[in-house]
Design a protein that fits this description.
Strand order of the largest sheet: 6-7-8-3-9-10
Distance between the termini: 39 Å
Shape: globular
Length: 507
């Protein structure tokens, strides 16, 4: 189905993929693993014909014995979205924010088929349902920002499947999904690949998924293929040191053994906290116009505690965290920060006490202003909230925080786009801590990172937490990570906290 021969790709004068060759047969799922920057996504984008302006690729990309690199742009366009589809890693930046979800899923059918409007609608609803989207009729008219991260990823998957392609490229297709939905989506993709005899290039940082899901695995490092084999050959008897290092970075899921000091007091209290969304066509803030999505949640975090929060995609974890931070318009209940016995309401809109509670978001790239340097980004909250600091003091604090998260001072002059994913996430952690926050909310802080960088960031968070005594609400879909990072775990379902449990009971 697909054969790549001596593929070289790069940007301007810099070559980043160095003459790799691989193939994917009909009905086969081929995994590609490696650290960030190893060339996985550039290889995938070369096959899909989606390299950015200024990028180039050479070599042969044979699809059904047709060399795609020899086609004109017009000829290549007939393959995009129809014969070759792609599921991207970051659905929020891949979906058009001003076009309704149903219209975006329908677009490949408009371009590549002559189906009637009713036939297109039927096909769209069918593929949305197949991708695990409940109530697809309701979702048709919604915009991407109205969907949870997991729902957006499933909409991307539906869009990729709607034209029944022959080759599907999946670049981290389950990053934003909980383990239950991961299994559903992977089973869906596998069933379609086997039934229709498609080929699938599957790129993932999740080693356990690659091992259980793929038929063959390629390992990439610095733009070159290091090793290839069956999943058992790669994961049980790897030959190369690099492959062995990747595998050794997989979270072991051993429960955290240290405990919070019994004398530690409560640092954050959340009581009867609810978050509401406006209903369609609602104009006024009244109970009749609002829909309750987080329902009377109550919990507390102790000084120096890492409290886990788990639950299926769409259960309200991120909405709860944004509500606590004051990023949701309609809330009720209490959020109180306790410092030296003094209670400070964090829901007071006129208060500047927000610096006590900060957030590390899931996607480090979209969390940072791409037009500003790292130094400017880190010093911005100090300019706004620390009026007593002059320029030299702010600069010293920025350098101090860069050092605290393992980054060199020279990165202060760089832009987010010039940093790796792991470096950007370290900057986000520094940004959350630079004002002296007592509690941070980490919302899937490592889901977009490869396993070796994941381990570095998790070790960094744990080391900072132990050294500074900071408390953390840690949100994740990865149960192994939750087990090794957290002291206690909250379980959320349908907007409610259903239980609090210890690590031994988290599977």
């Amino acid at each position: 189905m697909l054969e790549i021969r001596n593929l070289r790709a790069g940007f301007l004068q810099q070559e980043v993929v160095h003459g790799i060759s691989l193939h994917a047969d009909a009905g086969e799922i081929v995994g590609i693993i490696g650290e960030s920057g190893s060339g996985k996504s550039v290889t995938a984008l070369s096959v899909a014909g989606l390299l950015k302006e200024g990028a180039w690729c050479k070599g042969e990309i044979l699809f059904h014995d047709v060399d795609l690199n020899r086609l004109s742009e017009k000829q290549r366009r007939s393959y995009k979205g129809k014969e070759i589809s792609m599921i991207f890693q970051e659905p929020l930046t891949s979906l058009n924010p001003v076009i309704r979800v149903g219209r975006q899923i329908e677009e490949p059918l408009l371009i590549h088929t002559k189906l009637s409007s009713s036939e297109r609608r039927k096909q769209v609803l069918s593929v949305m349902e197949a991708a695990g989207l409940e109530e697809p009729e309701k979702l048709l008219g919604m915009y991407p920002h109205e969907l949870s991260g997991g729902m957006r990823q499933r909409a991307m998957i539906a869009m990729a499947l709607v034209c029944n392609p022959s080759l599907m490229i999946a670049d981290e297709p389950t990053t934003a999904l909980d383990v239950t939905l991961q299994a559903q989506i992977l089973e869906l993709i596998k069933g379609i690949v086997k039934k229709r005899r498609m080929a699938c290039l599957f790129i993932s940082h999740n080693m356990s998924i690659v091992r259980n899901f793929c038929d063959r695995v390629y390992v990439m490092k610095d733009g070159e293929l290091v090793e290839t084999g069956t999943p058992d050959e790669i994961f049980l008897s790897a030959k190369k040191d690099y492959t062995k290092r990747l595998i050794s970075s997989i979270p072991d899921g051993i429960p955290r053994r240290d405990s919070v000091d019994e004398q530690s007091g409560t640092v954050l209290e959340v009581k009867n906290f609810s978050v509401y969304y406006k209903k369609k066509k609602a104009h006024f803030y009244s109970p009749a116009e609002l829909e309750q999505v987080v329902k009377s949640v109550t919990f507390s975090i102790r000084q120096g505690e890492m409290l886990g929060l788990v639950g299926q995609s769409g259960c309200g974890k991120s909405t709860l965290s944004k509500g606590i931070l004051g990023l949701q318009s309609y809330t009720s209940g209490e959020v109180t920060y306790i410092q030296n016995g003094k209670k400070i309401s964090l829901l007071d809109k006129s208060s500047k006490n927000r610096s006590y509670l900060q957030m590390v978001f899931q996607d480090p790239y979209s969390s940072l202003n791409p037009a500003k340097t790292i130094g400017w980004i880190l010093s911005e909250p100090l300019r706004v909230l620390r009026k007593n600091l002059n320029a030299n003091a702010r600069k010293a604090r920025v350098f101090e925080m860069l050092g605290a998260v393992g980054l060199s001072e020279d990165l202060a002059d760089r832009y987010p786009g010039e940093l790796s994913g792991g470096q950007r996430q370290r900057v986000c952690i520094a940004l959350a801590l630079i004002q002296g926050a007592g509690v941070i909310i980490a919302d899937e802080p490592v889901s977009a990172l490869d396993v070796t960088v994941q381990k570095q960031i998790l070790d960094l968070i744990k080391e900072l937490q132990l050294r500074t005594g900071i408390s953390c609400l840690f949100i994740s879909h990865d149960m192994a990570i939750v087990r090794q990072m957290c002291h206690r775990v909250l379980v959320m379902k349908n907007g409610e906290l259903t239980e609090m449990t210890d690590l031994e009971q988290i599977k």
